[in-house]
Amino acid sequence: MTLEGMRVVVDCANGAAYKSTPCVLRELGAEVVVFGNQPDGMNINKDCGSMHPKAMCKKVVECKAHLGIAHDGDADRVLLCDETGALVDGDDIMAIAALDMLEQNTLAKKPWFPP
After folding, report:
1. pLDDT (tens digit, 9 = 90+) per residue, 19-28?
2. Reported pTM
3. Among 15, 66, 96, 105, whose Cα sits 20 to 30 Å from the Cα of 79?
4. Does the structure show a pLDDT above 80 at 114?
């Protein structure tokens, strides 16, 4: 998998993912615009990250990025936004993943859809 040609904004919430997420995205070939990556032990989630996603959405539009990623402080949650700066909520993320897994035939159990 490659992210060559993609520009991704990442808000690390001054927390656990401040090094890992930008590093992984760069390794995959993305151009990464990162902020919230200066943890000082007191500023985790402070006006940034998935608790305050407006900054990420604005930066995506300003940087003409393809998507935005906002972690929470311990990086166990994430919010995304599209290239227009619109938030993609968790239900949408699960539906996107499920449809992709369905297409790849990797779901453990196929969902039931009424006729």
Report:
1. 999 999 999 9
2. 0.86
3. 105
4. no
